[in-house]
Amino acid sequence: MRTVDHDETGLTHDAALAARLQRARVELEARADAEVRFDAGSRAAYSTDGSNFRQVPLGVVVPRTIDAAVKAVAICRELGLPIVSRGGGTSLAGQCTNAAVVLDFSKYCHHLVSVDIERRRCVVEPGIVLDDLNRQLAPTGLRFGPEPATHQNCTLGGMIGNNSCGATAQRTGKVVDNIASLDVLLYDGSRFTCGATDDAAYAEVARGEGRRAEIHRALRRLRDDHAELIRERYPEIPRRVSGYNLDSLLPEHGFDVAGFLVGSEATLVTVLHAELELVPVVKERTLVVLGFSDIATAADAVPAIIEHEPIALEGVDRYLIRDEQIKGMNPQGLAELPEGTGFLMVQFGGDTVEEAGRRAHGLLDALGESEHEPEVVFFDDPAREDELWQVREAGLGATAHIPGRPDTFEGWEDSAVPVDRLGDYLRDLRRLYEEFGYASDTGPSLYGHFGQGCVHTRIPFDLYSVEGVAHYRAFMERAADLVASYGGSLSGEHGDGQSRGELLPRMFGEEVVGLFEQVKALFDPDDRMNPGKVVHPAPLDAHLRLGRDWAPRQPEPLHFTFPDDGGSFREAANRCVGVGKCRKLENEGGTVMCPSYQVTREEEHSTRGRARLLFEMLDGHDGGPIKDGWRSTEVRDALDLCLACKGCKTDCPANVDMATYKAEFLAHHYRHRLRPRADYALGWLPVLARLLRRAGLVRVVNALARLPWLRRLGTRAAGLEDRTVPAFAAESLQEWWARRTPRPDGPHGRVLLWPDTFTDQFHPEVGKAAVEVLEAAGWGVTLPTESICCGLTWISTGQLDQAKRQLRRTVDALADHVRAGGLVVGLEPSCTAVFRSDAAELFAGDQDVHRLRDHTVTLAELLTEHTDDWEPPPLPVRGFAQVHCHQHAIMGWEADQKLLGRTGADIDHLDSGCCGLAGNFGFTAGHGEVSRACAEQTLLPRLADAAPDEVVLADGFSCRTQIDEFDRSGHRPIHLAQLLAEGLRSSAGTTERPAHREEGPR
Ligand SMILES: Cc1cc2nc3c(=O)[nH]c(=O)nc-3n(C[C@H](O)[C@H](O)[C@H](O)COP(=O)(O)OP(=O)(O)OC[C@H]3O[C@@H](n4cnc5c(N)ncnc54)[C@H](O)[C@@H]3O)c2cc1C
Ligand code: SF4
Ligand code: SF4
C-alpha cells in the first residue's frame, strides 16, 4: 500500500495556493450562506482534533444550511481544494485534522428534521449532538442506540463518519447497525440517497444514468468479484471498526450502500442528512459490579456473562481507579466498588425494576455468587448506578495528565479481539508494554467494552524525541500484528484515520486494502476528500502534534508559577486532550464549563479552541499560523469572550485552567502598552471605590448613575457596557464595624471576616448578617479596617504586577492571624477563591500564602467543619441556589448543601452554569450580549417560573447583580449569611427581618 505525506503533494507549499485560497474566500463569501474563516485564529483553533496529529487547515467554512454546504463543496471543487467535514472534532485517530478546507456542521446544521414514531426512525442534519437528539426524542420513548463516551458533544455526522458506538453497543450495535439511509454528496457534486438495496431496487438504480448508477454498479461488481475474500478477511467480531465496511455490501447484509459509507471518515462522501433507526429507551436498569484478582482474569469471565444478555458489560482495572483517585474524580463511585483489582460492570435492562433485577440475579446465581459477597455489589438505584458508570466513562480523561507521571497518548486506544480470547490478549498486550518499556506499576490502564472485546488504553509514548517516535512506530507495528494474530481489529471504536491507516494491510492483507483503494478511486478519484486518511494514508508518525521537531517557545518570566505543570506555560498550553467536553450544551450536575461556547457555539470560544490557539502561539512547529507570540491579536480575541469563570479548571478532565492562562496572556500582551479602558476602570475598582468613599462622594455617584444619559456617557468613557451600575452602600461594612462596640471571643475562638470590596462597599448587609451568624455560632469576629484587597480585579484583567502587590500587602497583614492558626472567613466566592487558589499559584512556596490558603474557609465550611455542636436555625423555606462559578471550581458547594440540609431548607443547586457577569466580564464593552445570553439559558427562565415565596440564594456579588438587573420576577437574591441570619431571628421570635439590600440599583 502506498502512503502519502500530504505535505509532499505540494498543496500546502504551492505558490499558487495563496491565490486560490484568496479566491475561495471571496467566492465562498459571495455565493455560500456560510461563515467563512480563513484567518490565522480560526485555522489555529481547528488545527487538531482529539488525536496526536496536527495539520493546520487551509480555512474553515461554517455553513448555515445544508444547501450552503453543498455550495461550499462546489466552490472548493472549482478551485481544486481538499475538504474535510467536521462535527464535534473529538476524533482520536487524526481523521478530523487536515490541511484542507474544514466544513464545520456543528454550529448551524443541527436540526432534527422529522420523526416517524411508528417506523422508529428519524431524519437529522449531520451537526446535531447526540445528547441533544436524544433529549428531543425523549417524549417519544425512543432514542438513537449507539452512544460514545463523548455523547455530550459528538455529532451524528461525526458518529457516522467514525462508525461510533460505546457501552450501549452491547444492546444496539454500532452506527452501521442503526442507519436506514444517507443523503450524501460526492466531491464532484453528485448527490444521492442510499441505503440497503434489494435486487429489484438495485436493478432500477443500475439502469439509471449518472454517478449514482455508476457507483452502485461498480460497488456491486466489486462485491460480486470479491465476496469470498471479504468474508474471509473481515473478522467476525462485534467491534470491527477498521477499514471500509465492504462487508455491508455482501448479500447477507442487503447490499447496504449507506452501511458501507458509515465509517468512511469523510474520505468518500459528505453526509448531508441521515435517516436513523431508533430503539426504545430502556425503562429500568440494574448494575452488578464484580471484582476479580486482575483485569485479565476479569476478561476471562466475559464469555459466560454475555450469555445472560446484559445491555452493557464494561471492564475497569486498578490503574484507572488509581488515576481517578489521584485526580479526585468520582469519589462516590470509587467508594462503591467491591473488593478486587479488576472489575466488570454488568448492566441489565427491563421494563420494571423487578425484571432487570431478575436478570441480574440470574447471572449471580449462575456464577454461584450473591449480592452479599465482598467481591460483588448490586445496584438498582439509578443515581448510584450513574456514579459508578462515571468511573468507567471518565476513562480517557482520567488517564491523561496524571501529576508526576509521563503524559499518555492515544494510538493504540481501542483495539478489539474476539470476546473468548480477550483475557489472553490482555496478557499479551501487557507483555508487549513491558517489552517496550511502557509498563510500570502505574499503568498503562486497560479498560473498555469487554462484552464486545474492545480494549481502551493510553500509553506513555515518548512523542518528543527521534528515538521515542521510532519506538512508538515499532510498538504500533507489533501491536497491529498482535491483534491481527488474534483475529481482531486495529480499531474497535475510534476509526483508522492516520493512526491506523498505514497498518490496515497487517489486518486485512494487501488485497483487501487494494479494494479500499479502488473504492476511493471510484468516489474521489482526485483524492480531495480528507486526503491522507484511511486510504493512501500519511505515515502514522507524520504530522504529529508534538514530534521530534516540536520546539515551542518557553516564555519567561511568568507571573503564575503553574505548579501542576512544572512551572511551564508550554505544558499548561498543551494540557487539552481534545475530549471536547467544553463543547457540551447543558450544565447538568452543576457544571459550569464553558459558558461562552454554550452561547456562541464557536470552536474558538470553547476552552479547547482557546487552548489550541495558545498552543499555536508558542509556535512549536515553525511556520504556524500565529506568528507574534504574546502580542497575538488572534489569541487576544479568542480569550476576549472567556468569562474567566474557572469552570474548566474543575470540569475539564485535563483541568485546563483558562482563566489563569488568560490572566497570564493579558499581562504579557499589554506589557508596556496601554490597555483597554475597562481594565483600568474595573481592575482598579477597589482603589477607586475607597477614594470615592473617603472623598464623601458615594451618594453623589449613586445619584448620577441613576441618570440614564449620564450613566451612558460615563460607562462609554470607561469602556464599559451601558448597564446598571451597582450602587454604593451609604455606609461601608468597615465603617459600620468601626463604630460597633467590640464583642469578646466566643467559645470557639476568633475568626477573621474578610471584608472583600464587594461586600464592604456595595452589600455590607451581607457582612453584617455574617457577623450576626458567626457570633450566634459562638465565634468572636475580627474585621480588618485597613485598605486591603485580595487583588481579584487585577488578576482577572491580567494586571498581575499590581495584583501581586495587593496580595502581598494582604498576606502580610493577615500573617499573624493565620500563623496563630486563625481561620479567615470569605463571603464573596471569587475573593475566597483567590486565597484558596490563585494566591498560591502566584506565590508558590511562600509559607504565609500557603497558610492563608489552608486557613481560608467559606461561611458554610466554617459552620459545618469547624463549629462543633452548633445547630443552625430551622429554615422552613424552599428555592434554589445560583452557585457562583468560582465557588463551584475551587471551594465546591458540598458544605453549603450539608448546612442547608441541617436547616431543613429545600434549596436546589440550579444547573445554570455561570450567571454571565463573572466579575468584570459582563461590564466590559462588547460583552453585554454574551453576558445576558448566559443568564438567559437557565437562570432567568427559572426565576421567571419561581413562586413568589421561593428563596433565591446567590453568594456571588456578580450573580446578585446580574439577577438584579435582568430578572423581572421581583425576586431579591440573598447570600447564605442573610438566609441564616433571618432564620436566627425567626427562631428567636424577632420580627425584624434583615435588610436584604440597603440601597439597591432598582
Ligand atoms: C474522551 C473520548 C472518548 C471517546 N469515546 C468514544 C466512544 O466511547 N465510542 C466511540 O465510538 N468513539 C469515541 N470517541 C471518539 C469520538 O468521540 C467519536 O467517534 C465521535 O462519534 C466523533 O464525533 P464528532 O462529532 O466529534 O466527530 P468528528 O471528530 O468531528 O468527525 C469524525 C469523523 O467523521 C467525519 N465527519 C464529520 N462530519 C461528517 C459529515 N457530515 N459527513 C461525512 N463525514 C463527516 C470527520 O471528517 C471525521 O473523519 C472518543 C473520543 C474521546 C476524545
Ligand atoms: S479543554 Fe478540556 S474539556 Fe475541552 S477539549 Fe480540552 S481537555 Fe477536553
Ligand atoms: S474560564 Fe470559563 S469561559 Fe473561560 S474557557 Fe474556562 S469555562 Fe470557558
How is this fold's topology laid out?
Layout: H1 17-31, E1 34-37, H2 40-45, E2 59-63, H3 66-78, E3 83-86, E4 101-104, E5 112-116, E6 121-124, H4 130-137, E7 142-144, H5 156-162, H6 169-172, E8 179-185, E9 191-195, H7 199-207, H8 210-233, H9 257-261, E10 270-280, E11 284-292, H10 295-300, H11 302-306, E12 312-317, H12 318-326, H13 331-335, E13 342-350, H14 353-367, E14 376-379, H15 382-393, H16 395-399, E15 415-416, H17 422-435, E16 447-449, E17 454-456, H18 466-485, H19 504-508, H20 510-523, H21 569-573, H22 595-600, H23 607-617, H24 633-640, H25 647-651, H26 658-669, H27 677-683, H28 685-694, H29 698-705, H30 708-717, H31 733-738, E18 750-753, H32 757-762, H33 764-776, E19 780-782, H34 792-796, H35 800-819, E20 823-826, H36 829-842, H37 847-855, E21 856-858, H38 859-865, E22 878-881, H39 885-891, H40 894-903, E23 906-909, H41 928-937, H42 939-945, E24 951-953, H43 957-966, H44 976-987
Parallel strand pairs: 2-4, 3-4, 18-19, 18-20, 20-21, 22-23, 22-24
Antiparallel strand pairs: 1-2, 5-6, 6-10, 7-10, 8-9, 8-10, 11-13, 11-14, 12-13, 15-17, 16-17
Helix pairs in contact: 1-3, 7-8, 8-20, 17-18, 23-24, 33-44, 35-37, 36-37, 36-39, 38-40
